[in-house]
Design goal:
277 residues; alpha+beta; single chain; 40% strand; 17-stranded mixed beta sheet; 19 strands; two-stranded antiparallel ribbon
Length: 277
């Protein structure tokens, strides 16, 4: 039995959706890597595998793999793509996606625009997780000489996946490729981490570049944008509602005071559809 497959993107963050609701299928690492390789597969940053939901409150379940074959619990841009794909199928303008990280409510916010309720951010060091107890508003971590570090004191937050956010003067000049891999694999992060480089342009505007765990430098990272806004608000650098500008475009992020939930709104695009055996 073949499965439906679609190539989508959220602000350039390459997403592949594989519909395994009618066929028991779990990809292995080699299969994921081959599909992620643009030379032999479709090429992607994240693979979202659709299954029937376990929760009676959800409309669909999504497993998530990074391009390097590692399985993860959350992907904000991927969730927006899944929401659009399933809403179109069900002729709905709202639904609930179940992931390993929990239930995500999604609503249509206009043509090819999706809002996702990403839930509450996590700040507890052992739940992020980190290997040492630290104040996650500003952790004890620096890059470079002790007396003149290149980067230091990042904020750490989990949006269902771990994020380490450095605040920089100029995101365009940030050493994302050089520093990103070092921090991703730092011993402080036993499950590795995503690494953000955030520039506060204004209290309602953040410029962000992201080294994504398992994918590398990416054009967009939805959970990364959420984490950057939350980390900035915790440092009193930004308001609770802001535009987060990533390499692929802009996301609207709101950390609601009423229920502590983070709402992410942004575009999605369908590139191609087909089937796979």
């Amino acid at each position: 039995m073949t499965m439906k497959i679609a190539k989508m993107n959220g602000l350039g963050n390459e997403i592949v959706i594989l519909d395994a609701r009618e066929r028991a299928f779990t990809p292995d690492e080699a299969w994921v890597k081959a599909l992620a390789d643009p030379a032999q597969g479709l090429g992607f940053d994240q693979l979202m595998v659709l299954r029937h939901p376990k929760s009676p409150l959800a409309d669909v379940y999504s497993d998530i793999w990074n391009a390097d074959g590692s399985k993860v619990a959350a992907c904000g841009n991927g969730a927006r793509c899944v929401a659009w794909y399933v809403m179109r199928e069900m002729n709905r303008d709202n639904l609930v996606i179940e992931t390993e990280a929990g239930l995500l409510g999604a609503v249509s916010a206009g043509p090819n625009q999706i809002s996702i309720d990403m839930g509450e951010p996590i700040f507890d060091w052992d739940r992020i997780p980190m290997s040492e107890r630290m104040d996650t508003i500003r952790i004890e971590l620096q890059v470079g000489p002790i007396d003149d570090p290149i980067l230091h004191g990042p904020g750490v937050v989990s949006m269902g996946n771990p994020h380490c956010v450095f605040f920089v003067q100029d995101a365009e000049l940030a050493p994302v490729r050089e520093i990103g891999p070092m921090i991703e694999y730092h011993p402080l992060f036993p499950e590795r981490t995503n690494v953000g480089f955030a520039q506060i342009v204004a209290r309602n505007h953040i410029r962000l570049r992201v080294w994504e765990r398992g994918a590398g430098l990416t054009k967009a990272c939805g959970t990364g944008a959420c984490a950057a806004l939350v980390a900035a608000v915790r440092r009193r650098l930004a308001d609770r509602l802001a535009t987060v500008e990533v390499d692929g475009g802009a996301l609207r992020i709101e950390w609601r005071d009423s229920d502590n939930h983070v709402i992410m709104t942004g575009p999605v695009a369908l590139e191609s559809e087909g089937t796979v055996g």
